Every structure is written in structure tokens, then in C-alpha cells.
Amino acid sequence: MSPEPSQESFRLLNLACGRADETGVLADVFGQQADHLELTGIDVRGREISVAADRWKQLSPGKSAEFLVQDASKLSDIREIGESFDLAFMRHQNFWNGDSTWTKIYDQALHRLSEEGLLVITSYFDREHRLALDAIQGLGAELVCTQRHNASRVLTDAPGKSVDRHIAVFKKR
Questions:
Q1: Number of H helices, E strands in the chain
Q2: Backbone phi, psi, residue 21, to 5°
Q3: Which residue among 23, 68, 78, 158 is the one 20 to 30 A from 45 at the CA level?
Q4: Nearby residues of 55 by Cβ (< 8 Å), 6 or more positions away
Q5: What is the pTM of this model?
Q6: DSSP state of 162
Q7: Rounded mean pLDDT of the chain?
Q8: 4 within a domain of the structure (yes/no)
Q9: Any idea what the CATH number is for the domain that residue 90 is in?
Q10: Does 83 or 2 have the greater pLDDT score?
């Protein structure tokens, strides 16, 4: 499931992206339907953004990535990223740890989406996922689908958690 990108371009916003390990997959999946993919990654941690910028400076033709040290809860203040994104993505959000911050990030992400844009999140564990679903729907988003990934990799050092255990897709109402 992906929003229908224009034939010319597709804009993707990766929030709280850290090292942006998922960039290659995102570029491959969403870049194949458009002539140009513009991926923007944002995180408050400068060290991780530096790693991401170095690692992903060379994407395939027609695909570009930019990584910024910024606070995703204040997207409305970040002029250089533009206004409208086809997809906002948050992998491994930590709603259980600072729910007001994550609610602000979700709200800012929804406001940066195009009319047909989608917000996609992944979660580490069940309770966190339920909290995030409630928060995002409370902001007025419509849940398109949610799916548990039964083959997600268990984190042996964190009981009850696994990598990308859940994924959810939302759209603006």
C-alpha cells in the first residue's frame, strides 16, 4: 500500500530517523513509482544524522536524501523542508517514553502531509502500539490499517519487544 505518487516526484519525510537504516528500502519501494524521490530525514541527534548523511549521500539516479539535525516536534518552524509530503514515516517510535513529545511529532507530521499523504509508524511492542494508535486517531487521523509482524526479530535484551512488531498506516480526514 502506497500513496499514488505523481509521475514527477514523491516526497518522503522520515522523522526521528536516527542513522536512517531504512533509507535504502524506502528509496527502493517509493522511488520506483516516480521520476524523482526526495527523502528528508530529521532527528535531534547530530551524531546519528551525520552517519545517515554520509551513508546515504549516493542513492540511485532520480533519488535524493537530505538529513537535518532538527526537532521533529517543531516541524512548523523548519522552513527548508517545504510544506507537503506524500508520506511521513516513523520507525520505532517510543510513545511510551514521552507521550506528549510523540503526540506533537504526530501532529506536526499530519500537518505536513499532502491531501492524499499517509503517515506510517512502526512500534516495538503491543502497549506502545495501542497508545500510538489512540494518540494519532485523537489528532483526527483515520487509521487505514494496522498489522502485527509475526516474524519480527525479538530483542533478547528487552522482554516483550521486537523490531517492527507492528506497522500502522494513517491518512488525514
A1: 4, 7
A2: -55, -25
A3: 158
A4: 19, 20, 23
A5: 0.90
A6: B
A7: 91
A8: no
A9: 3.40.50.150
A10: 83
The domain total for the chain is 1
**Residues whose CB is less than 8 angstroms from the CB of residue 49 and which lie 6 or more positions away in sequence, other chains included:** 17, 41, 43, 67, 68, 69
Give me the pLDDT at residue 11, please: 97
Q: What residue has cell string 546515504?
A: 56
Count of C-beta atoms within a 10 Å radius of residue 145: 9
Rg (CA), the chain: 15
Asked whether residue 158 is assigned to any structural domain, the reply reads: yes
Whole-angstrom distance, CA of residue 37 vs CA of residue 159: 37
pLDDT digits (tens, 9 = 90+) for 111-156: 999 999 999 999 888 888 999 999 999 999 999 999 998 888 888 8
Instruction: Name the CA dihedral angle for 14, 19, 25, 31, rounded to a multiple of 10 degrees.
Output: 50
Nearest alpha carbon to residue 23 among 62, 52, 61? 52
Q: How far apart are CA 89 and CA 113, in angstroms?
A: 11
